[in-house]
Automatic annotation (TrEMBL):
Top-level taxonomic group: Eukaryota
Protein's name in the database: Transmembrane protein
Origin organism lineage: Eukaryota, Viridiplantae, Streptophyta, Embryophyta, Tracheophyta
UniProt keywords, alphabetically: Membrane, Transmembrane, Transmembrane helix
Coiled-coil ranges (or none): none
Transmembrane spans: 27-49, 61-85, 106-139, 159-189, 210-230, 245-264, 330-348, 379-401, 422-447, 467-497, 518-537, 549-576
Keyword match Transmembrane helix: yes
Length: 615
């Protein structure tokens, strides 16, 4: 077999184009990994503002811990994103757990390589400054009166001299960074570390050093301008307070942009590594992975038809199928989502449901406030919200489940299904609430018994609201409830579609979700995070004098309504996938038994009738 000719040089535009394509094909996967960049992005964004505005009063130890945490999470993000990009370009399926697990083998090599790079940059800078100092010392020793730095009488010449020295040092460091830019992909893909990774990177980047410099300048300058713009905006406002919703929104938007810059730069670096590897070591494997069009100088990665489709059992696959189901019957689903509107609206307008500030301040636990709180909510109001929400879950689940067959479901049919599914759903919901309350009480009694035992032993253990043990106990209780909820996450879908209720539905859910709990957890975190963020922003905005009350409430209510709709559809899709995983794809629809699937290439839901009525 003839060896294909070396690929021509790649341009910065080509690298960015391929990077965008890879991220777009695995959008949710890379977005999840990008959250590891969040601490560093926040630190880079707000630290200049805090220092310039005089709000930075943290202790050195606290500051050091923040730096170490951001540094470790950023290196973890680089390792995971590099691994995912490398596998995606090879056409391999990528999973979030697999990318995270690679940290067990790649984190310490990447950490050691990063430390070596920092040490080399430090010694290069030190050697350069010593050299400059030696050169400047010559005219001083000759009595020429040459002074490089005079704090008392600075001149224009000394300022320009410092600018030239600083610019020269920056150019030298950027040049070395361009040579070592592929070190992290080398560590992840080839298991090399330290100086070996730097030497390998220098060899691979030969011939593409200008592309590396261009990428480094592109993302570096863009990020610097973003931080500069944010700092200027906040300093002009005069007060930096994240409790002020315009400041919070600006910080949130800037952090997201900076996170995306870091994500895209890491993906682009890995794409450049794959190209350079193909350029220097053209063989059958990498010639198929990376082919450069001679005219456009753009990497052509395998097309969607040649690569395996997205894993339907992943979080991305579940959300993708949910969007397709919604798109086919969007009018039907949007009508049913109106059942969610009352509870969505109440979350923003009812003071009794907006307890976040009271919980954080501790005012909720005072005797008078607790007594008034327990007597404020009208029972009829709560029952109405509860009934409408369960009705929405029942009708949306019924429609999404039967919509897989491709048969249009009438709105009246979905409403009529409440006669057979509402009471099983209510009984299952009440049972879940009772069990969660019982589990919480049991856990708190156990913790209280342990505290009393420690106090009786004379250890002087005191558990107060301000105590960190109190917060740890609350966090542990939340984790325990989430674990049980994950086992019961399919109970509502089972109550609607299989007419099982109570303990039978919970046991059935625990069996079906086995092996898919991670997907259920990611779906829960996904919807809770985005929904909670919208509630926080819109609730704070509605209380601000800078914006009319009605607009944040309307926007937040509609958005939360859609989030609840999509979450129920996604839960139904997960239920169907869990049944399919266990060979239960046959569903009774009318008088026929059908098998259904979602065609990943089509925009509509397709179905195939496999067994007739007489089967």
């Amino acid at each position: 077999m003839e060896t294909p000719p070396p690929a021509p040089s790649l341009s910065r535009t080509g690298v960015i184009s391929v990077s965008k394509r890879i991220v777009k094909d695995n959008y949710f996967h890379f977005i999840d990994l990008s959250f590891l960049f969040q601490p560093l992005a926040i630190a880079i964004l707000i630290t200049p503002v805090l220092r310039l505005s005089g709000h930075h009063h943290k202790s050195p130890i606290h500051h050091l811990l923040c730096i170490l945490t951001s540094y470790i999470l950023s290196l973890s993000a680089i390792a995971a994103v590099t691994f995912s990009t490398h596998n995606a370009m090879q056409g391999k399926p990528i999973k979030l757990f697999t990318s995270i697990k690679t940290l067990t083998t790649s984190f310490f090599p990447i950490l050691w390589t990063a430390i070596v790079i920092h040490l080399l940059q430090f010694f290069i800078s030190l050697a350069f400054l010593v050299l400059v100092g030696s050169i400047v010392a010559v005219p001083q020793n000759l009595g020429l009166g040459f002074v490089i730095l005079d704090h008392e009488n600075p001149t224009e010449f000394t300022w320009w001299l410092h600018a030239v020295i600083g610019g020269t040092l920056l150019v030298i460091l950027v040049f070395f960074q361009a040579n070592w830019s592929l070190a992290y992909p080398v560590v992840v893909a080839e298991s090399k570390r330290g100086l070996a990774a730097l030497i390998r990177s220098t060899y691979l980047v030969t011939g593409s050093r200008l592309v590396s410099l261009s990428l480094l300048s592109y993302y570096g300058v863009s990020g610097f301008l973003l931080v500069l713009f944010y700092t200027d905006v906040e300093l002009v406002n005069g007060s930096f307070d994240l409790r002020n919703w315009p400041t919070f929104f600006t910080t949130f938007a800037g952090t997201c942009c900076l996170m995306m810059y870091m994500l895209m730069s890491t993906v682009g670096n890995t794409v450049l590594y794959m190209h350079c590897k193909a350029l220097h070591e053209v063989d059958e494997q990498f010639a198929k992975i990376v082919t450069v069009a001679s005219n456009s100088s753009t990497i052509m990665i395998p097309s969607a038809t040649s690569r395996p489709p997205a894993n339907p059992l992943s979080t991305t696959g579940i959300l993708s199928e949910s969007n397709r189901v919604l798109k086919v019957n969007y009018g039907h689903f949007y009508t049913l989502s109106l059942f969610f509107l009352p509870i969505s609206f109440s979350i923003f307008t009812n003071p009794n449901l907006r307890l976040s500030g009271e919980l954080l301040s501790g005012e909720l636990f005072t005797g008078d406030h607790l007594h008034s709180f327990l007597h404020k909510p009208p029972l009829f109001h709560l029952l109405t919200l509860y009934i409408l929400s369960l009705s929405a879950i029942a009708t949306v689940t019924f429609t999404a489940f039967h919509g897989f067959s491709g048969k249009p479901i009438k709105l009246t049919t979905a409403i009529k299904s409440l006669k057979s599914s509402f009471f099983p759903l209510v009984s299952t919901s009440i049972l879940i609430h009772i069990l969660l309350i019982f589990i919480s009480i049991t856990f708190l009694v156990l913790i209280k018994s342990i505290v009393v035992l420690l106090q009786n032993l004379g250890l002087g253990f005191v558990m107060e609201y301000e105590n960190s043990i109190y917060l740890a106990t609350g966090f542990a209780l939340i984790v325990i409830n989430i674990c049980f909820y994950l086992n019961w996450s399919l109970a509502f879908a089972i109550a609607v579609t299989e007419s099982k209720w109570g303990f039978e539905a919970l046991v059935r859910s625990s069996r079906l979700v086995k092996g898919m709990r991670s997907v259920s957890l990611y779906l829960l975190l996904y919807f809770v995070s985005y929904g909670g963020l919208v509630v926080f922003v819109c609730t704070d905005a509605s209380g601000s004098r800078r914006s009319p009350f009605v607009f944040p409430v309307i926007f937040g209510s509609l958005f939360l309504m859609m989030m609840l709709l999509v979450s129920v559809v996604a839960n139904t899709v997960l239920y169907v996938r869990c049944r399919g995983l266990r060979g239960e794809l046959g569903i009774e629809v009318g008088e026929k038994r059908v098998c259904f699937k979602l065609d990943s290439d089509d925009e509509k839901v397709s179905h195939v009738v496999t067994v007739g009525a007489g089967a």
